[in-house]
Amino acid sequence: MTCKEMVEFLMAYLDRELPEAQRASFESHIDLCPPCQVYLDTYRQTVSLGKLLCEHEDDPVPDDVPEALVRAILAARRQEG
Asked: What are the extents of the domains in the chain?
C-alpha cells in the first residue's frame, strides 16, 4: 500500500469497513511508515476534538480565543449545515 492509498482508505479503516486483506495491508503500511503513523494519529485527534467541540457548542467562547479562529469555526459550521 502507498501513502496515497492509505489516505484514500483512512475513513473505511476507521469505520471498520475495509475487507480483511486491505485492512492487513493498511496496518502493515502504518507500522512501517512513520509519516502515515503521524497522519493517522493527527486525524484521530482531530476527530476527537471535533466531537468534544460538538459536546460543548453552546458553551461561551473564552475572551482569549482569537476572533479569526471563532470566525473560521462558525464559517465551517455554516458550510456543513
From this structure: 3-80
Q: pLDDT tens for residues 38-65?
A: 999 999 998 888 887 777 667 777 777 7
State the Cα–Cα distance between residues 34 and 30, nearest whole angstrom: 7
User: DSSP readout, the chain?
Assistant: --HHHHHHHHHHHHTT-S-HHHHHHHHHHHHH-HHHHHHHHHHHHHHHHHHHHHHTTTSPPPTTS-HHHHHHHHHHHHHH-
pTM over 0.85: no
Cβ neighbours of 36 (radius 10 Å): 19
